[in-house]
Design a protein that fits this description.
By secondary structure, the chain is of the alpha+beta class. The protein has helices at about 30-45, 55-65, 100-110, 120-125, and strands at about 5-10, 20-25, 75-80, 85-90, 95-100. The chain contains four helices and five strands. A five-stranded antiparallel sheet has the order 1-2-3-4-5, with helices on one face. Helix 1 crosses helix 3. The two termini are about 20 Å apart.
Length: about 130
């Protein structure tokens, strides 16, 4: 396992306008560049041509600022803010905010989209 995941929400089932937080507690050491590239690959896989190369480049830069090299036990929490974007916390410290709702939706789709690579985790996160 790479991480343990928990989803915190104000309303279940989640709706398009409900804020939530996705907390990942890492179980092994992973470099920031690997986290960014894996996230970028998944966003591109799920979004296809709906996301331009320019957007992907900008989003890559945003994730470079939001993520860190992680060690076992370290947490990265993304807080989805409808109409605004996402705030990323490393452990309990705000690391970076991205004021881009399209990015936030594309990023969280990695775990919450029905086409996720881990449908069992998605079901658990959503309480199914």
């Amino acid at each position: 396992k790479v991480y343990n995941a928990r989803l915190w929400g104000t309303a279940l089932p989640l709706t398009a306008d409900s804020p939530f937080a996705l907390e990942l507690t890492y179980r092994r050491t992973i470099r920031r560049d690997e986290l960014v590239q894996t996230s970028l690959d998944e966003i591109q896989r799920l979004s296809g041509t709906a996301v331009s190369p320019e957007q992907l480049k900008d989003w890559q830069a945003q994730m470079q600022r939001a993520f860190v090299d992680v060690e076992p036990g370290q947490r990265i929490t993304g807080v989805f803010l409808p109409g605004r974007g996402v705030q990323f916390f490393v452990d309990q410290r705000l690391q970076h905010a991205v004021d881009d709702e399209a990015f936030a939706r594309a990023f969280f789709a990695i775990w919450l989209d029905p086409r996720t690579r881990n449908p069992q985790l998605r079901a658990q996160l959503l309480g199914r």
